[in-house]
Amino acid sequence: MRIIAGKYKGRKLKTLSGRRVRPTADRVREALFSILGDTAAGSRVLDLFAGTGALGLEALSRGAEKVIFVERSGPVLEIIKANIAGLAVEEESEIITDDYRTALKRLGERGDRFDLILADPPYESSGEKGKTIGENILSLIGKFDMLREDGLVVIEHFYRTKPVLPDLSWQEIQAKKYGQTGLTFLYRDMNSDRKNGKRAIYAGSFDPITLGHLDLIQRSARVFPQLTIAVADNMEKKPFFPLSQRLSLIRESITSLPEVEVESFSGLLIDFAARKGARILIRGLRVVSDFEYEFQMALTNRKLSPELEIIFLMPSEACSYISSRMVKEIFLLGGDISAFVPTPVVKAFKSG
């Protein structure tokens, strides 16, 4: 067993032989963190039923700030300690040797909150009062309000027995199956904005952001109380501006909209939407020629993620002809672009 990606990629992890421990298979772990994307970076993580610690250590390798491991089996604890020492991540790690119920109560009572909670309980065990362990875990997390805003819970389980949701505040984002193993991704939304479909994503490369983009962002923000601008990190397109600068230019251009989030993503947009708990994708239609491509992409996304809704918006007439490609061509030919892009973008072109 090895660390799959990140700072400690390729480093070997110790494990126990036999049936005492059922560590998450490498391909399941790889798929899980692929779906999570950069969620682990800078996050506080709780690894329940930690076993060898592979999930929590993978999170640390991918930039997690702190991981708390919960495991009560004596022989396995020695394996976790050895793996933590092997990666020299003692300062970023904490081990709790209680059962999961006691550990969650203890953490909750001391006010710990997490961005990501990973749970891999025994497949065929039940909890107390006839509830499954998964349901008990979710109940305790909810009782002590242990998830930060936009926090996620991922429960590994036998693929035929998905965790029961204890109340309406819990929402399933997606479920995946890998052989006999199932992964269920969940979030908890007490305000139920996302549950009611009020979080939307407007995605693109924004290379650079134009007044047409800005028009759609402003109008979308009036409709959706939670709006995320998702900037694609796609090196195959050979962007004019690097990703970090595109993010900065968008933020500088929407200072009047502090409630709008700006984030980057790589991989499938539907996976990013799932991580954000969004059910709505916003797409812009400038001209008739855009429709065929957008229609094809909408059908593809609907096939991959049936719960997503795609909303098409047309920019105002004054912006309907503006495109990022046109802006770059005008600039490279020595033309004035100030009528097509926000002021921060004009400055970036001139300084570049």
Q: Secondary-structure blueprint of this entry?
A:
Layout: H1 26-36, E1 44-48, H2 54-61, E2 66-70, H3 74-87, E3 93-96, H4 100-109, E4 114-119, H5 133-143, E5 147-158, E6 170-178, E7 181-188, E8 199-204, H6 211-223, E9 226-232, H7 243-253, E10 261-265, H8 269-276, E11 280-284, H9 288-304, E12 309-313, H10 324-332, H11 343-351
Q: How would you sum up this structure, described in words?
A:
- With 352 residues, the protein is an alpha/beta fold.
- The protein folds into 2 domains: 26-188, 3-Layer(aba) Sandwich (Rossmann fold); 199-351, Rossmann fold (3-Layer(aba) Sandwich), CATH 3.40.50.620.
- 34% of the residues lie in helices and 22% in strands.
- It contains 11 helices and 12 strands.
- It has helices at 26-36, 54-61, 74-87, 100-109, 133-143, 211-223, 243-253, 269-276, 288-304, 324-332, 343-351, and strands at 44-48, 66-70, 93-96, 114-119, 147-158, 170-178, 181-188, 199-204, 226-232, 261-265, 280-284, 309-313.
- The strands form 2 sheets. Strands 3-2-1-4-5-7-6 form a 7-stranded mixed sheet, sandwiched between helices. The protein has a 5-stranded parallel sheet with strand order 10-9-8-11-12, with helices on both faces.
- The N and C termini lie far apart (46 Å).
- Mean pLDDT is 88; it is low at 126-130.
Q: Number of helix segments? A: 11
Round the Cα radius of gyration to an integer and report it.
23 Å
Name given to the CATH architecture of the largest domain: 3-Layer(aba) Sandwich
CATH hierarchy, class of the largest domain: Alpha Beta
H-E string: HEHEHEHEHEEEEHEHEHEHEHH
* Tally of structural domains: 2
Rough outline: elongated
pLDDT below 50 for ≥5 consecutive residues: which ranges?
126-130
> What characterizes the major β-sheet?
7 strands, mixed
The CATH superfamily of the largest domain appears as Vaccinia Virus protein VP39
